[in-house]
């Protein structure tokens, strides 16, 4: 039943034939999708990022332990300053708070900086950076270098490249994640999953319904050539009983989730179409979707859904298989 | 003995990061699943070694997968805990400062109670003595729901207890802060809150 409904949804998206019928909500769809092995694969691809969602809660004990430490110190009146061979960052003449004044240190500067620090200090700072990324990234909003330097790196900014290099290595070797700079202008990072999703993995973790919604939108955009006017998205979602104008039981303010949350998370781009009155927008894949979601896998999924060879969508097939997975996918529309 | 981490370890860790806590059966299933996915050998009695390998790599980041027991069921659980004590952790926390303060107060109430429980009324009353931004009734209720959802507290009939996950993660903190009040089970030497019979 769910396959049939989803099938109808997709057919209406890009065929001239209009099929009207009552369709289950996307939430129900997403739930049904996850219980059917057929759809599990591409859905999990997106859901991987929600896997970091509970980690911040781990930090609660860290806070409490610090409280314990402070109280203990107050009681005992002894100060235990952390071991350090030398105060780091004495190379810097003045305090630099803004990233606008942060210049990437040269290799020789980094070298000199490292010489003045113990391996333990560098390791500790790297650990803090890793933790910061893990926690901040779970909101899926890119982490700015400026914030990282200001709040975490601080006095160690003169060895910043070394710390980032070590953090990257840690993410790769320990967590199976990849640290990606998605914006080289404003220097923002995201974490993406290096590992392939696996059927049956959702035994322990239920899928986030929002990912189902996102997946539907990404599929529509991709099958339509990479760029769609917002009205198509809204009307399609309405058919799935997800009305942007109404408060949805599962998603709440749908319009906000799609145009604000997904955009901030860089899954979608929501761009104004010039000279439109009233103002209209178009949707594109965002940078995170480009990096995290495999177009080839979407097409494969479509193929299974329609019982067609993915190659029958020649244009989409070309696009899905033309660029290597690590580079930016083309977002030009060819309608 | 710590081997190198492989994809099977990473997959296990990623799942732990989402769940926070799993029971022994889930852990074994997950272990088997991760090994099978990556064509690694999997011996049922090697689960703890497998986790030790992960822990050896997590240690520099002050994280650990720790084993603990549920007071209610006597079942073994594995929880991913954070043992970091720096400013960064505080800022990185998902909870606001005043939320953490109220959580701390709730723990105090639970620790002070004979039956290891704190009623929602008592928790609401403790808002009055907050030093950070005082929370409204609705905010407090929202926070408590969130703490239950995130598996830090358990709620039954309006009374709150510490969850297994909380106990596992907070154990060092609780031992330290409540040295006098902590009751330790004489048999297994674990902290006991609810005075249940030892299994």
Strand order of the largest sheet of chain B: 1-3-2
Shape of chain B: elongated
Q: What is the ordering of alpha helices and beta strands of chain A?
A: HHHHHHEHHEEHEHEEHEEHHH
The low-confidence parts of chain A are: 1-68, 75-98, 325-335
Largest sheet of chain A: 3 strands, antiparallel
- What is the first-to-last residue Cα distance of chain B? 31 Å
- Poorly predicted runs of chain B: none
- How many beta-strand segments of chain A? 8
- Assigned CATH architecture of the largest domain in chain B: Orthogonal Bundle
Total tally of structural domains of chain B: 2
Report how far apart the termini of chain A are. 31 Å
Note the main sheet of chain B: 3 strands, antiparallel
Q: Could you state the order of secondary-structure elements of chain B as H and E?
A: HEHHEEHHEHHEEHEE
The DSSP helix count of chain A reads: 14
Main sheet strand line-up of chain A: 1-3-2
What is the mean pLDDT of chain A? Answer: 70
Summarize the entry for a quick read.
The complex is a heterodimer of chains A (335) and B (199). Chain A is built from 14 helices and 8 strands. Chain A is mainly alpha-helical and 335 residues long.
Structure description:
The complex is a heterodimer of chains A (335) and B (199). Chain A is 51% helix and 10% strand. With 335 residues, chain A is mainly α. In chain A, the strands form three sheets. Chain A has a three-stranded antiparallel sheet. A three-stranded antiparallel sheet of chain A has the order 4-8-7. Chain A has a two-stranded antiparallel sheet with strand order 5-6. Chain B has 199 residues and is an alpha+beta fold. Chain B has two domains: 7-82, Aspartate Aminotransferase, domain 1 (Alpha-Beta Complex), CATH 3.90.1150.220; 87-178, Arc Repressor Mutant, subunit A, CATH 1.10.10.10. Chain B has helices spanning 7-19, 24-37, 47-58, 87-92, 97-112, 120-125, 137-149, 164-177, and strands spanning 21-23, 63-69, 76-82, 118-119, 153-156, 159-162, 183-184, 191-192. In chain B, the strands form three sheets. A three-stranded antiparallel sheet of chain B has the order 1-3-2. A three-stranded antiparallel sheet of chain B has the order 4-6-5. A two-stranded antiparallel ribbon of chain B has the order 7-8. In chain B, helix 1 (7-19) runs antiparallel to helix 2 (24-37). The longest helix of chain B has 16 residues, at 97-112. The radius of gyration of chain B is 18 Å and the shape is elongated. Classes of the chains: A mainly alpha (335), B alpha+beta (199). The interface between A and B is large, with 48 and 51 residues.
């Amino acid at each position: 039943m769910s396959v049939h409904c989803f099938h109808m949804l997709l057919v209406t998206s890009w065929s001239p034939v209009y099929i009207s019928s009552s369709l289950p909500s996307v939430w129900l769809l997403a739930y049904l999708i996850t219980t059917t092995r057929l759809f599990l694969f591409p859905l999990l691809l997106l859901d991987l990022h929600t896997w970091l969602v509970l980690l911040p809660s781990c930090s609660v004990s860290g806070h409490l332990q610090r409280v314990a430490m402070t109280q203990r110190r107050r009681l005992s009146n002894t100060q235990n300053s952390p071991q350090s061979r030398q105060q780091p960052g004495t190379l810097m003449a003045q305090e630099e708070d803004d990233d606008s004044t942060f210049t990437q240190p040269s290799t020789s500067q980094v070298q000199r900086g490292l010489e003045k620090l113990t391996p333990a200090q560098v390791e500790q700072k790297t650990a803090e950076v890793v933790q910061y990324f893990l926690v901040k990234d779970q909101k899926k909003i890119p982490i700015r270098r400026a914030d990282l330097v200001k709040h975490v790196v601080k006095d160690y900014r003169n060895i910043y490249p070394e710390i980032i290099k070590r953090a990257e290595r840690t993410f790769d070797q320990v967590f199976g994640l990849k640290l990606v700079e998605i914006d080289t202008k404003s220097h923002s990072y995201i974490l993406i999953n290096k590992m392939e999703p696996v059927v049956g993995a959702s035994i322990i973790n239920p899928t986030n319904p929002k990912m189902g919604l996102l997946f539907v939108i990404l599929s529509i955009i991709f099958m339509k050539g990479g760029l769609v006017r917002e009205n198509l998205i809204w009307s399609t979602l309405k058919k799935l009983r997800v009305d942007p104008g109404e408060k949805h039981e599962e998603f709440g303010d749908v319009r906000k989730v799609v145009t604000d949350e997904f955009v901030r998370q860089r899954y979608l781009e929501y761009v104004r179409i010039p000279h439109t009155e009233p103002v209209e927008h178009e949707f594109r894949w965002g940078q995170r979707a480009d990096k995290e979601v495999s177009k080839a896998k979407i097409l494969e999924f479509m193929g299974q859904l329609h019982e067609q060879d993915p190659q029958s969508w020649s244009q989409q097939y070309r696009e899905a298989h033309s660029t290597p997975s690590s580079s930016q996918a083309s977002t030009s529309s060819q309608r | 003995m710590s081997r190198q981490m492989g994809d099977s370890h990473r997959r296990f860790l990623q799942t732990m990061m989402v769940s926070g806590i799993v029971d022994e059966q889930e852990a074994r299933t997950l272990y088997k699943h991760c090994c099978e996915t990556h064509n690694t050998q999997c011996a049922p009695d090697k689960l703890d070694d497998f986790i030790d390998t992960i822990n050896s790599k997590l240690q520099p980041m002050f994280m650990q997968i720790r084993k603990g027991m549920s007071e209610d069921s006597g079942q073994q659980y594995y929880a991913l805990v954070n043992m970091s004590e720096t400013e960064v952790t505080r800022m990185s926390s998902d909870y606001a400062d005043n939320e953490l303060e109220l959580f701390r107060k709730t723990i105090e109430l639970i620790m002070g109670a004979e039956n290891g429980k704190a009623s929602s009324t008592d928790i609401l009353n403790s808002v009055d003595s907050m030093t950070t931004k005082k929370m409204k009734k609705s905010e407090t209720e929202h926070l408590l729901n969130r703490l239950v959802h995130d598996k830090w507290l358990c709620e039954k009939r309006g009374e709150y207890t510490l969850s297994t996950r909380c106990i596992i993660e907070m154990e060092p903190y609780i031992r330290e802060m409540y040295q006098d009040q902590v009751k330790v089970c004489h048999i297994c030497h674990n902290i006991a809150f609810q005075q249940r019979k030892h299994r």
